[in-house]
Amino acid sequence: MTQSFFDQMRRYDPQAIRQYYRYRPWQAIWRALTIIWLFSGFILSLKWDEWFNQVEANKLKRATQLRQLLTHLGPTYIKVGQALSTRPDLVRKDFLDELTKLQDRLPPFPTPIAFAIIERELDRSIEETYSEISPEPVAAASLGQVYRARLRSGEEVAVKVQRPNLLPVLTLDLYLLRWAASWMTPWLPLNLGHDLTLIVDEFGTKLFEEVDYLNEGRNAEKFAANFQNDPSVKVPLIYWRYSNRHVLTLEWINGYKLTDSQIGQLE
Fold this sequence. Notes:
Number of helices: 11
Radius of gyration: 21 Å
Strand content: 5-15%
Shape: globular
Helix content: 40-55%
Low-confidence stretches: 263-267
Distance between the termini: 53 Å
């Protein structure tokens, strides 16, 4: 019953999620207590620094503490941290530098689990699909991690594997965030122009779009079609035969981050 509910979810549906967790209050209560406990400890640490005039001395320590806290809470809160990492107008620099690490420096999940997901989703063994594949991920993000591989047909590819049991975590967090937003809205002195729950719903909609790798592949192909006449834009090919909702196989392209300060030294 539980797995069937998540298997059938293709789009973010706050009403269906609310209905599901209405009959599982213990899950929501335990998760809420965990979140409250962790954030309370962090806020207490900030207050402690204020009380004992240690704000400047401990600012880097607190920034690291926040990043570790969000990482511990999982994909939903990592996504929140990633969003904040792009807002220097809202977040002070020491916190910003640490939150930026949430973009691509996250702990991976075990490779045996990732390979098992690939085999289950593609319905074939690793050996049947790839002539070689990296023993460890080359990058790990909030929703998945990437392996460098070579198909049996010879193409070098990036294999993106979604983290296991992702929807149960995301839906529970979105349920709690939406509940908190509905409760907090009347008390916040913010002129947002609309209900805070609409912000959570927009966030949830985008999260569900990212979780569906087929959607990501289709968007990549649309983007490629829009820029097909622009030689300065390169979009990796999608290998649909080796892709589905939880595994995405695409052309491997060497490159560098826009924030790389050593661009001139790259080949």
